[in-house]
């Protein structure tokens, strides 16, 4: 497994990931309301690619309204295999390089694998609704 940085000059890997992501897109709704070109505004956009050159995991750090937001998606059928851990490590390494002290994310309450992943990486709950949890990492 290797990490590839994606930029707006070549969106083919990102398109490939989204087209093969399956039901995981029901939980990762980021691109439902945004064009793929939004990545030009990201601090970083990463894909974890397997040995067959198939993207398995997506991740980004996105600055919006003065806050850095993390987004991550593991493709359908690949949950629970450690790929999310692999991507979280890469994203947090990027955050350190970018001198990002605080990261936010939101997640569906019933996405138990994601909840466990975020908490294992030190994200703390800061707010909760009946469907969503907001997390914060850092100071």
Supply database-style keywords.
alpha+beta, Aminopeptidase, 4-stranded antiparallel beta sheet, globular, 139 residues, 35% strand, 3-stranded antiparallel beta sheet, 24% helix, 7 strands
Please describe the biggest sheet, giving its number of strands, its sense, and whether it closes into a barrel.
4 strands, antiparallel
CATH fold assignment: Aminopeptidase
Count of helical stretches? 3
Side-by-side strand order of the widest sheet: 1-2-3-4
Q: What top-tier CATH class fits best?
A: Alpha Beta
Rg, Cα atoms, Å = 14 Å
- Distance linking N and C termini: 31 Å
List the helices and strands in order: EHEEEHEHEE
Describe this structure in words.
This protein is an alpha+beta fold. The protein has one domain (2-100): Aminopeptidase, CATH 3.40.630.30. Helix content is 24%, strand content 35%. The protein has three helices and seven strands. The protein has helices at residues 12-20, 83-97, 112-120, and strands at residues 2-5, 42-49, 55-64, 67-74, 102-108, 124-128, 132-138. The strands form two sheets. The protein has a four-stranded antiparallel β-sheet with strand order 1-2-3-4, sandwiched between helices. It has a three-stranded antiparallel β-sheet with strand order 5-7-6, with helices on one face. Strand 3 (55-64) and strand 4 (67-74) form a beta hairpin.
Write the layout of secondary structure elements.
Layout: E1 2-5, H1 12-20, E2 42-49, E3 55-64, E4 67-74, H2 83-97, E5 102-108, H3 112-120, E6 124-128, E7 132-138
Antiparallel strand pairs: 1-2, 2-3, 3-4, 5-7, 6-7
């Amino acid at each position: 497994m290797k990490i590839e940085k994606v930029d707006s000059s070549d969106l083919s890997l990102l398109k490939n990931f989204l087209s093969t992501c399956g039901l995981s897109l029901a939980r990762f709704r980021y691109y439902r309301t945004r064009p793929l070109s939004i990545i030009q505004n990201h601090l970083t956009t990463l894909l974890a690619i397997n040995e067959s050159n198939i993207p398995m995991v997506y991740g980004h750090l996105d600055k919006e309204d003065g806050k850095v937001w993390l987004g991550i998606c593991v493709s359908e059928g690949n949950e629970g295999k450690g790929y999310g851990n692999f991507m979280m490590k890469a994203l947090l390494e990027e955050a350190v390089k970018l001198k990002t002290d605080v990261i936010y994310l939101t997640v569906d309450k019933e996405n138990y694998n994601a909840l466990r992943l975020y908490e294992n990486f030190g994200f703390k709950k800061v707010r909760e609704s009946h469907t969503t949890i907001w997390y914060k990492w850092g100071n």
